């Protein structure tokens, strides 16, 4: 329970589907009347029972706030994954949250289902007993699929009861989809004797069977009767209109709410079977029943809105991808097409030196989810292009719980939920790896808003994923450029890097009388160290001198490894060169005192000061600095 209201989660898919959308609308209105809030966790595509390769957008079902939920509704046949549903059910059991499974059956869990077998039996009996077909053929779904096998058994049962012998030639498999159905229908048409009816296990297959028959000048229903099952919208626009069984999800709403509220109150609950609605139509020779007119305006509106949305969201994603900073990327999300939207991402994906989407899964940290965009706040501050208040954006806390009511976005989500309409969650994913979620909220049930969510989530995923991709590529280019321009041992510029950096620096110099100082510093006794302690120790000594040089010079100095043990620094502008040389020497004294090495590290440093004018010659300046350094080295050697 949250803020005095019972919190119900609905786990489903494709909420832009008119049937599911209608179910959500009816469900939420009934829940509101019972002092409940509805959170919807949805994928934008079905998983299609592919249990071996669950898509990353199913991550949205990992985000349920189980500790605060009062109940969970799972639309199993819409999600189409036993693996996903079982994971939700098991976590609910651990947290003591009651579950109702819609269109599915799991041990120890209450279910609410359509009587699919009964509905399909109505279709087959209608053909055999009222239209008196003698040579029926069945277009089944996948082999061994529970829904397909159940309908095959119903087909066999009705035929047997009406004295029609079944054999395997009366069965084809269209896999519930277009291409396999088309191929199977073409095989049927090669036969000498054609069936007088093709009974399809779903509407998609029925529509494709009709198309193949029409292409071969076979009339439906005059030559062959065709029926479907499911009652999808397309069958109300086909020619002929398809005889089907409507499994309109809204028919389950009353029972779903009643079961859930009874479970919350600890009442005894029985599983429920609801008979779907049989719709006889033209494809079996019955009277035309046309439901298309009431849908056409809505579909046209959604279609044209979708085209407009896709173009604008593509532009938003492109702006996000090409942003230079995380803050600019988050600000680029805001647009009139992204209103009613919260964007939450794993802060770990913004670590600059790691490409989030290629980190091995076993090395992935737990997601640390944080808010990066609030459309309401961005709208109020669009002139400043602020996605959210900076104190929230730069929040350094760690979000431990990884659900939609944890972290710095909790109050934002609950503010939207209090308005009385469902709050919808989609996963953000890129390269099949989830990295956050979108939260959507609307002040109405307009299906065009729900239809936009799949495109919006895709645009946000592509925009953020592309931004991270380009950002990491820039990082790698910087690393490669650094390796090309810098000495790997000391980190100082090499000669190539110095030439490039010096030319760039000269472009910013306005006064051609600017003083320029060259300090040449050379390690003393490198050969002695190499011969007596090894080249690794010689490298350590070189690195120590380099550190002393770069730490003693101003930050904008150009420090270079000139040769094996020779280094120099170029300082443009006024500087205390004697102080710098003294700092180099003192730094090395401090190094010797703390390192406890068997040898001492020291350097000889000489310098020259010149002016950047038309007569300036950098090679001559370096030569003079080198001579000054050798004078110092000679004095030091004589002193020893």
Main attributes of the structure:
elongated; 640 residues; 20 strands; 10-stranded mixed sheet; alpha/beta; Rossmann fold; 4-stranded parallel sheet; Alpha-Beta Plaits
Look at the structure and give the mean pLDDT: 91
- What's the number of extended β-strand segments? 20
Unreliable stretches, pLDDT < 50, 5 or more residues? none
Helix fraction bin: 40-55%
User: What is the level 1 CATH name of the domain at 495-639?
Assistant: Alpha Beta
> How many DSSP helices?
19
From the helix content, strand content and strand pairing, which structural class follows? alpha/beta
Reported CATH architecture of the domain at 495-639 = 2-Layer Sandwich
Give an overview of the whole structure.
This protein has 640 residues and is an alpha/beta fold. The chain is 42% helix and 18% strand. The protein has helices at residues 18-32, 76-79, 82-94, 116-130, 146-161, 178-188, 203-215, 253-264, 293-321, 326-332, 375-380, 390-393, 410-417, 447-485, 495-507, 526-533, 535-552, 577-595, 618-639, and strands at 6-13, 36-43, 71-75, 99-102, 110-114, 136-140, 171-173, 197-200, 225-227, 244-246, 272-274, 277-279, 341-346, 369-374, 423-430, 433-441, 515-523, 558-561, 566-572, 603-611. The protein has a ten-stranded mixed β-sheet, sandwiched between helices. Strands 7-6-8-9 form a four-stranded parallel β-sheet, with helices on both faces. The protein has a four-stranded antiparallel β-sheet with strand order 18-19-17-20, sandwiched between helices. The longest helix is centred in the C-terminal third of the chain and has 39 residues, at 447-485. The protein starts with 5 loop residues before the first strand and ends with a helix. The model has no long low-confidence stretch (mean pLDDT 91).
């Amino acid at each position: 329970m949250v803020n005095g209201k019972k919190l119900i989660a609905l786990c489903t898919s494709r909420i832009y589907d008119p049937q599911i959308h209608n179910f959500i609308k009816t469900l939420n209105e009934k829940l509101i009347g019972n002092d409940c809030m509805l959170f919807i966790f949805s994928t934008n595509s079905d998983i299609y029972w592919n249990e071996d390769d669950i898509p990353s957008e199913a991550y949205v079902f990992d985000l349920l706030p189980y500790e605060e939920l009062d109940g969970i509704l799972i639309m199993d046949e819409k999600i189409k994954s036993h693996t996903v549903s079982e994971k939700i059910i098991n976590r609910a059991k651990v947290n003591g949250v009651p579950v109702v499974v819609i269109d599915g059956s799991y041990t120890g869990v209450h279910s609410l289902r359509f009587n699919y077998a009964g509905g399909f039996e109505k279709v087959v009996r209608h053909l055999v007993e009222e239209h008196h077909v003698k040579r029926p053929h069945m277009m089944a779904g996948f082999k061994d699929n529970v829904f397909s096998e159940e309908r095959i058994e119903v087909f066999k049962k009705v035929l047997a009861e009406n004295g029609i012998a079944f054999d395997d030639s009366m069965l084809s498999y269209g896999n519930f989809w277009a291409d396999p159905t088309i191929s199977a229908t073409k095989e049927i048409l090669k036969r000498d004797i054609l069936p007088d009816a093709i009974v399809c296990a779903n509407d998609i297959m029925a529509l494709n069977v009709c198309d193949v028959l029409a292409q071969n000048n076979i009339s439906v229903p005059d030559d062959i009767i065709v029926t479907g099952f499911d009652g999808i919208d397309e069958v109300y626009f086909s020619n002929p209109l398809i005889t089907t069984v409507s499994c309109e999800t809204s028919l389950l709403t009353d029972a779903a709410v009643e079961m859930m509220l009874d479970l919350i109150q600890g009442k005894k609950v029985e599983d429920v079977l609801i008979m779907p609605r049989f719709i006889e139509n033209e494809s079996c020779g019955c009277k035309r029943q046309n439901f298309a007119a009431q849908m056409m305006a809505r579909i046209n509106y959604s279609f044209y809105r979708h085209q407009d949305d896709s173009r604008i969201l593509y532009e938003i994603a492109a702006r996000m991808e090409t942003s230079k900073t995380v803050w600019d990327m988050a600000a680029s999300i805001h647009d009139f097409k992204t209103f009613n939207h919260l964007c939450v991402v794993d802060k770990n994906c913004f670590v600059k030196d790691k490409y989030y989407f290629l980190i091995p899964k076993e090395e992935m940290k737990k997601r640390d989810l944080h808010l990066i965009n609030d459309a309401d706040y961005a709208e109020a501050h669009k002139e400043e292009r602020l996605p959210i208040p900076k104190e929230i954006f730069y929040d350094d806390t760690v979000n431990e719980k990884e659900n939609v009511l944890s972290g710095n976005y909790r109050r934002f989500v609950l503010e939207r939920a209090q308005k009385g309409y469902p709050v919808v969650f989609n996963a953000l994913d890129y390269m099949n790896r989830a990295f956050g979620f979108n939260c959507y909220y609307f002040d109405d049930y307009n299906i065009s808003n729900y239809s936009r969510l799949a495109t919006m989530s895709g645009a946000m995923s592509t925009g953020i994923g592309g931004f991270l991709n380009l950002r990491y590529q820039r990082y790698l280019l910087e690393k490669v450029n650094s390796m090309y321009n810098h000495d790997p041992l000391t980190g100082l510029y090499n000669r190539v890097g110095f030439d490039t950096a010096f030319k760039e620096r000269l472009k910013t110099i306005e006064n051609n009388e600017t003083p320029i100082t060259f300090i040449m510093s050379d390690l003393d006794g490198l050969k002695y160290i190499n011969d007596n302690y090894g080249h690794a120790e010689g490298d350590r000594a070189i690195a120590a001198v380099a550190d002393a040089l770069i730490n003693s010079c101003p930050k904008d100095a150009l420090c270079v490894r000139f040769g094996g043990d020779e280094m120099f620094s170029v300082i443009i502008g006024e500087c205390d060169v004697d102080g710098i040389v003294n700092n180099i020497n003192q730094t090395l004294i401090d190094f010797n005192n703390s390192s406890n090495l068997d040898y001492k590290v020291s350097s000889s440093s000489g310098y020259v000061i010149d002016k950047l004018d038309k007569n300036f010659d950098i090679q001559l300046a370096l030569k003079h600095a080198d001579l000054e350094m050798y004078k110092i080295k000679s004095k030091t050697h004589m002193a020893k």
